From TrEMBL:
Residues 18-74 form the BED-type domain. Residues 1-18 have a biased composition (Low complexity). It comes from Colocasia esculenta. It comes from the Eukaryota. The keyword Metal-binding applies. The keyword Nucleotidyltransferase does not apply. Keywords: Metal-binding, Zinc, Zinc-finger. PROSITE patterns: ZF_BED. Coiled coil: none annotated. This is BED-type domain-containing protein.
Length: 92
């Protein structure tokens, strides 16, 4: 008897964030209404949404406490991502 029970159920993706940002892979939404996002690395909860999480991961000084547990790989990835955003804004 060959029982076929190895079929994986299709993942339900009904609660996707409106804009797919690469930073969502590194944070968890705590409170969407208040834009609270938790860092996956240091478990710190940041208020200010995904943009704040990116600043936290890249360790931009001033507006948010820097992440102490993020890997250099991830940090560099978002460093470049932020730079691309910045350069696309300057349009001379
Ligand atoms: Zn962190």
């Amino acid at each position: 008897m060959a029982a076929e029970g190895g079929a994986a159920p299709a993942p339900h993706s009904s609660s996707n964030p409106p804009s797919v940002d690469p930073a969502w892979a590194h944070g968890i939404v705590v409170d969407m209404a208040r834009r609270k996002v938790q860092c996956k690395y240091c478990t710190r909860v940041l208020s200010g949404g995904i943009f704040r999480l990116k600043q936290h991961l890249v360790r931009i000084k001033g507006e948010v406490a820097p992440c102490s547990k993020v890997s250099a790989e991830v940090r560099i990835q978002f460093c470049q991502y932020m730079k691309e955003k910045e350069t696309s804004k300057v349009n001379n």
